[in-house]
Amino acid sequence: MLSDADIRKLFDDAVRANWNLFYCTAYRVVRNTADADEVVQQGMMKAFGSLASLQDANRLVGWMCQIVRNTALDLLDKRKRRETSLPEEFDPASDRPQAHHLTAVNESAQVAWDEIEKLPESQAAVLTLRHSEQLNIEQIAGRLKISANLVRVRLFRAYERLRASPRLRRAVGEA
Q1: What are phi and psi of 84, to 5 degrees?
Q2: Which CATH number is associated with domain 99-171?
Q3: What is the pLDDT of residue 83?
Q4: Residues 6+ away with beta carbon under 8 Å from 26
Q5: Backbone angles phi, psi at 95, to 5 degrees
Q6: Which tens digit of pLDDT belongs to each residue from 125-158?
Q7: Is 0.70 topped by the overall pTM?
Q8: Domain boundaries in the chain?
Q9: Spatial distance between the Cα atoms of 129 and 36, rounded to a whole number of angstroms
Q10: What's the fold here for domain 4-82?
Q11: How far is CA 66 from the centre of its chain?
C-alpha cells in the first residue's frame, strides 16, 4: 500500500509528464485554448481532491484523463443551459444568413467533429490544434513537445482517415 506522500509524488509526476495529454483531452471537448486551460486546472484540482478514491495507482493517468474529460463535458453542459435558443430567422436587413441556411453547415460541422472524435487521441490533437487553433506545424510540435515530422505524420494519417469516412463524404456533398 502506498503512503500519502508516495501518492502525492505519483500525482505530481503524472501531472508534469502528462500535461499535454490532459490539455489535448480537454481541448477535444471544449475546442478552445482558454477553456482547455481552465478545464485542466479544474480537473487537476478535482483529481487531487479525490486521490483517496483511486483504487489502482497504475491507472492514475487514465483516471485523471477521465476527470478532465468529465470536467470539460460539465463546462459545456453548463453553457448549454445558459444559452438562449437561436431565433428562427435573423433580421432580413442584415447580411447574416437566415437560420435555415445555417442548419446544413452546422450538421456538416457536427459530422466532422463526430468523425474527429473517432480518431486516435494523437491524431485528433494535432488536427484540432491545426484547424481550430490555426497553429502551424512547428507551433503544434512545440505545444505537444514532439517533432515537427511526427506532427506531419499524424496530420497525414488523420486526413487519410477522414477522407475514408463515407459519413463525412456524404455530409460535405462528395459521392
Answers
A1: -90, 155
A2: 1.10.10.10
A3: 59
A4: 35, 36, 37, 39, 40, 43, 68, 69, 71, 72
A5: -95, 10
A6: 888 888 777 789 998 888 888 899 999 999 999 8
A7: no
A8: 4-82, 99-171
A9: 12
A10: Rna Polymerase Sigma Factor; Chain: A (1.10.1740)
A11: 12
36-58: b or e for each residue (b if 16 or more CB lie within 10 Å)? bebbbebbbeebeeebeebeeee
Report the amino acid identity of residue 42: Q
Residue type, 134: Q
Query: If you search the block for the grid coordinates 467533429, which residue do you land on?
Result: 113
Q: CA distances (Å), 7 to each of 17, 55, 73, 76, 99, in order?
A: 15, 11, 27, 31, 52
C-beta separation of 2 from 10 below 8 A: yes
* Alpha carbons 60 and 50: distance in angstroms, whole number: 11
Contact 123, 158 (CB under 8 A): yes
